[in-house]
Amino acid sequence: MATLAELVATLETAYPPRLAEPWDSVGLVCGDPAETVRRVLFAVDVTAGVVDEAVRWGAQAVVAHHPLLLRGVDSVSADRPKGALIHRLIRSGCALFTAHTNADSADPGVSDALAEALGLTVTGPLDPKYVPAVDKWTVQVPPEHAAAVLAALFAAGAGGAGDYREAAWRVTGTGQFRPLDGANPALGTVGELARVAEERLEVVAAPGSRAAVLAALRTAHPYEEPAYHVTERAALTGNQGLGRIGTLAAPLTLREFTARAAAALPETAWGVRAAGEPDRVLRTVAVCGGAGDSLLDTAARRGVDAYLTADLRHHPADEHLRRSGPALIDAAHWATEFPWCAQAAAVAAAGLPELETRVSTVRTDPWTVGCGG
């Protein structure tokens, strides 16, 4: 039987908390990590209807995209709307876990699920996250001192690579040097060329730890002047980041693609609307699940034919089109993120096959009436 801690670990492997925006609130909201979990319900929002469904079904955990407690709170008393939900979840033995902007930027993440629903082949992120720069330290040291120097470097923060620690590369070679007058060499004689066996050590470290790593190196190294070199690797882009760019298997007009989106996404009162020439031919489409008007300029720079997202505002959209940017498709916020629920459920089931998972049938889109045409 799986535990809540195992469920959290599985989900945080797929949606690493480090990818969350600084203002966000993600992770375990309530629940005992040691408790067992058999049934998990997945939803975009935590509403009274979703909690009712979870309790009726006998779920031990709800996994939501939108945080219930995003902004700072000083009370979760049961006489407040959000507090009442927290109290009911706890009384029912049901935990709550949130994956928000970390799920937006993960690979795969929210926008991958959206792109798949729309029949797009993803080629990369719309707004990629950069892999941080990292230092590579190269150090020459006598073999008998290599272990002590490595231990000091590790203690100072070097040797970390992703989920690994104490990572290093070692090779034995021959070093040479000639001590000059005034030197006090640990090996060799002043004025004479010395050739000694040395190990070459290579470790990586964050640029911010340079002072600590250098101090540790100088303390642990037996040489009067340690031989070392530091190289900074440039920051690189990866497959993580907000939004996705995708290609269509065959060109479609804006009108045709908008109809496809309306058919592929869950129906809402908001519907799906487009801005641009209806017969414009589309081959590449950028998507961003949720509110994505902050990436309008990014979509324009990436040269896509159209950009589908949610919550587009009148003036930014109008100005974007006046600059001859991509055609715009605006869908309901909830609808663009709903495909992620099935993705997250599949992640949990793959990591913990004993779980029973379900995507909530409660439509949490807040809009209930749509008129006009």
Automatic annotation (TrEMBL):
Keywords for this protein: Metal-binding
Binding positions for a divalent metal cation per the UniProt entry: 65-66, 104, 333, 337
InterPro entries per record: DUF34/NIF3, DUF34/NIF3_bac, DUF34/NIF3_sf, N-reg_PII/ATP_PRibTrfase_C
Gene Ontology MF terms: metal ion binding
Cellular component, GO annotation: cytoplasm
Highest taxon, organism lineage: Bacteria
Gene3D superfamilies, per the entry: 3.30.70.120, NIF3 (NGG1p interacting factor 3)-like
One Pfam family matching this protein: DUF34_NIF3
Family to which this protein belongs: Belongs to the GTP cyclohydrolase I type 2/NIF3 family.
Binding partners and assembly: Homohexamer.
Protein name, per record: GTP cyclohydrolase 1 type 2 homolog
Source organism phylogeny: Bacteria, Bacillati, Actinomycetota, Actinomycetes, Mycobacteriales
